[in-house]
Amino acid sequence: MATASFAALEVRANASVMARLSNAVASYTPSGGVARDMLVIFDANYQEVIDGLVASSGPSAVCSTLDAPAVARGDLLTIRGVDYQVVKPMPDGAGLTRLQLRLEE
User: Fold this and answer.
1) How would you label 50-71 residue by residue, b for 16+ Cβ within 10 Å and e otherwise?
2) Residue 45: predicted pLDDT
3) All domains of the chain, ordered by start, with CATH?
4) CA neighbor of 28 nearest in space, from 65, 62, 79
């Protein structure tokens, strides 16, 4: 009986996680590229500003690293009709990437 490599198992596990836990479909447009849809786990955490200090984090989305392997600062995500810019992509080294977002200006 052949066994799958760890990398193959990781890809399958991440695909299963995204299929079951995603709560939005994002249209991802790399800078200078073509838009494509991908599943994300979206957190629309609001920013509360008190006397010019940020009290909480902004919106973020988790996606499969395979869906956006070259995601970069400035890339565009449209989620639920709202445009966001990627501020910081944070790959976890295990096949998922958290994207720190801000509203597109």
Assistant:
1) eeeeeeeebbbbbbbbebbeeb
2) 80
3) 22-103 (2.40.10)
4) 79
